[in-house]
Amino acid sequence: MIAKIIKGSGFAGCLDYLVNKEGAEVLEARGVRSENHRLAAKDFIMVSKQNEEVKKPVMHLAVSFHKDDWDKITDDNMRDIAGKVIEEMGFADSQYIVIKHTDQPHPHFHIVTNRVSLSGKTVSDKQDFKRLQAIKKEIEKQYPYLTPATKKHPENIRKERLRPNDLYKLELYNYITNAVNKAKDINGLIKLLKKEGIQTELKFKRGSITEVQGIKFFYKDRWITGSKVHRSCSIGNLVKAIRAKNQTMANPPGAKFTTADAVKREIARQGQVVNDTIHTDMYETPQQRFRHRM
């Protein structure tokens, strides 16, 4: 289960977007005329005007489930979960509407509620994200049969929904991870990326020609640091990933193999990672070291 918060000032635009999705269905509503989303928007606006100190009265919460949970989550489950979220987020005395969507590969629903309660009081949004995540954990305990949510990873992102800059990062990320799977060390990674037309530059610690602290890539006429591509593409994480992969290949399933701590010890033993600082004794000569700085 994944829960998100979006705050805004326009009820009409929010409801237009949610209700006009193909297959959208109103599951529940309170204090608004749910049979017509434009009338519902007017109801929300009328109440919000009771407290004009609230500049962003729209509270939009999206609750999503795993794509394998279509047969596990019912409309009644969604209503129960929505009710728990609404109450524990402090909107028990507010108008709300719950809308189910079926336009994505995963089941999900949306809650639109009013940060101005029916009595005209402001519903606090202090630490709302933190509170929502705590509620999410409680709900997951209540529904243990649902597939646990995982952090969104680049391989799971839908490309058609990305902005140009994010698509650029995803493309570069794919090149880098493919090279990691083939490389034996950072030097090999650099060579593999060069074959794809991607230039790599290592950032050395000030005053040193042997300790590397960062990495950046030149792709499609621009430079970008590894950590901005994705956290797994920082220099420390790249070296760890390559070493861990090589260690796993040397110790296939069934063989006696230690934990990640042993991998770190192996890296440290070879003098190439100390507190995520990379030492370039992996290069054969000083000339090779300087070549990667250019």
Tags for this model:
single chain, 294 residues, five-stranded antiparallel sheet
Can you describe what's shown?
The protein is α+β, with helices and mostly antiparallel strands and 294 residues long. 39% of the residues lie in helices and 19% in strands. Strands 1-3-5-4-2 form a 5-stranded antiparallel sheet, sandwiched between helices. A hairpin with a 2-residue loop joins strand 9 and strand 10. The longest helix is centred in the middle third of the chain and has 19 residues, at 164-182. The radius of gyration is 26 Å and the shape is elongated.
Largest sheet: spatial strand order: 1-3-5-4-2
Q: Major beta sheet, specifics? A: 5 strands, antiparallel
Radius of gyration over alpha carbons? 26 Å
Total of DSSP H or I helical runs spanning 4+ residues: 10
Percent of residues in beta strands? 15-25%
Q: Distance between termini?
A: 46 Å
State the low-pLDDT regions, or none.
253-294
Mean pLDDT figure:
83
User: What is the overall silhouette?
Assistant: elongated
Order of helices and strands: EHEHEHEEHHHEEEHHHEEH
Number of strands: 10
Going by helix content, strand content and strand pairing, the class is alpha+beta
**Share of helix, binned:** 25-40%
Task: Briefly say what this structure is.
The protein is 39% helix and 19% strand. The protein is of the alpha+beta class and 294 residues long.
Write the layout of secondary structure elements.
Blueprint: E1 2-8, H1 11-19, E2 25-30, H2 37-48, E3 58-64, H3 75-88, E4 96-101, E5 108-114, H4 128-142, H5 164-182, H6 186-195, E6 199-204, E7 211-219, E8 222-225, H7 226-229, H8 235-250, H9 260-269, E9 273-274, E10 277-279, H10 286-291
